[in-house]
Design goal:
The chain is of the alpha+beta class. The chain has 2 domains: 119 residues, Phosphorylase Kinase, domain 1, CATH 3.30.200; 274 residues, Aminoglycoside 3'-phosphotransferase, Chain: A, domain 2, CATH 3.90.1200. The protein contains 16 helices and 10 strands. The strands form 3 sheets. A 5-stranded antiparallel beta sheet has the order 1-2-3-5-4. Strands 6-8-9 form a 3-stranded antiparallel beta sheet. The chain has a two-stranded antiparallel sheet with strand order 7-10. The longest helix is centred in the last third of the chain and has 26 residues. The radius of gyration is 22 Å and the shape is globular. Keywords: Membrane, Transmembrane, Transmembrane helix. InterPro entries: CHK_kinase-like, EcKL, Kinase-like_dom_sf.
Length: 404
């Protein structure tokens, strides 16, 4: 693909616009494509830009990450992927919400065009020492704490703008586009949720676990998209803020500060949304944190999140923070912790290497049949892991309304 005439034309046009945006002399700038990779619905290209700093007379380099919608997506049949909305949200984030002095990659250039023509050019922050987590799926405690602290700052930024600049904040919220949680027959995510989510309960039933518990949980999880996901993403005041929407290890980079402490950086804001903190917290704690660590350190982890949230608000000049209390955050988690469990039910087989999605197979045999074929990838080992997550949610009080 990268050798095609269409791609060469595209990258030449994009790089020309980037060079112009940076105010560089096009005749004295060279660029080189280092590598390309595809992620779900996005193509990512790593480019190095070489130019001369005229004021210092020095040769300089700028490493750039180019993101564009995947061009060869195949026929998705009746289903909508809404990849145009994903780029809309991320461009909106960088152009209206993120500030240059904050802990995000610098946006060098962005253009929102037709669904397949949008592009985002970001600073390659690996040159600043940031990297993906060295642990493939589960991270140790110092990484977990770094992530929840960063989530705390992220949510705090939303609360601060909501309190101090409400008109600007709600203008941004009004411009967000829904990517995943839309209730139509075209949403493949709905079918995937409802097929995968009951897996842990089915395992518990096979193990002879309490029938009443299994019956009540299966009734909810068999319709998880409507009964859990759609309900939890709805804004609920006063705790709703801007949430990342997809806090997985693939969307977090890590660096080390001068004092040796690990610092996290959030990337990929395609699923940015206005919801309550549990959306991000439960997703990360089920996808990025081992069961035993989450059980043993849950309150410490939640306290680290809230301490950072409170610190951000006070530094921003928000003093009426009682509504964002630690107790309110815990209650929000109890209300919606099942959200992250459903996410884990869908993705853990992929993260653990039991299942590698193949788009062509999905297109050939159809979504429902394909998902059912892979529902139990990972066997009883993964089933037990998911069941342990569910039982921990029960112990935390997250299932109280369902089980009563």
């Amino acid at each position: 693909m990268c050798n095609s005439k269409d791609f060469q034309k595209w990258i030449q046009e994009v790089m020309s616009k980037i060079i112009e945006k940076l105010g560089l002399d096009a005749d004295e700038v060279r660029y080189k494509l280092l590598k390309s990779t595809d992620r779900m619905m996005t193509s990512i290209h790593f480019v190095v830009l070489r130019f001369k700093d005229k004021t210092k007379g020095e040769d300089n380099e700028l490493s750039i990450v180019l993101k564009r919608p995947l061009q060869e997506r195949g026929d998705m049949g009746e289903y909508s992927t809404r990849d145009d909305s994903q780029f809309h949200n991320e461009i909106l984030f960088y152009q209206t919400y993120a500030r240059p002095d904050e802990n995000y990659a610098r946006c060098i250039y962005a253009n929102e065009g037709a669904p397949s023509d949008s592009v985002i050019a970001l600073e390659d922050v690996t040159k600043r020492g940031y990297h993906l987590c060295p642990h493939k799926y589960y991270a140790p405690l110092e990484y977990v704490l770094a992530v929840v602290r960063e989530i705390g700052r992220f949510h705090g930024k939303g609360y601060a703008m909501k309190e101090l600049q409400p008109e600007k904040f709600f203008d941004i919220v009004s411009r967000l586009q829904e990517v995943r949680y839309f209730n139509t027959s075209m949403n493949m995510y709905k079918d995937i949720c409802n097929i995968y989510a009951p897996r842990a309960v089915e395992y518990l039933r096979r193990q002879g676990y309490d029938t009443v518990f299994c019956d009540k949980m299966e009734a909810v999880l068999a319709n998880a998209f409507d009964e859990v996901m759609m309900k939890m993403v709805e804004p609920l005041e006063p705790l709703s803020t801007l949430c990342h929407g997809d806090v997985t290890l693939d969307n977090i980079l890590f660096g080390t500060k001068n004092d040796g402490q690990v610092r996290a950086m959030l990337i990929d804001f395609a699923l940015l949304r206005y919801s309550t903190p549990v959306i991000d917290l439960s997703t990360y704690l089920h996808i990025g944190c081992p069961n035993e660590l989450r059980k043993d350190k849950f309150l410490e982890i939640m306290r680290a999140y809230h301490d950072e949230l409170k610190k951000y608000l006070l530094e921003a000049g928000v003093w009426n923070i009682e509504k964002y209390s630690y107790e309110a955050i815990l209650d929000d988690y109890k209300r919606g912790g099942l959200f992250g469990f459903v996410i884990a039910s869908l993705y853990m087989s992929i993260l653990l290497g039991y299942f590698q999605p193949n788009k062509q197979d999905f297109i050939t045999i159809g979504l429902i049949k394909y998902v059912k074929q892979h529902k139990y990838d990972g066997g009883d080992e993964l089933c037990k892991m998911l069941a342990d997550m569910l039982l921990h949610l029960r112990d935390l009080g997250c299932l109280k309304d369902i089980l009563e």
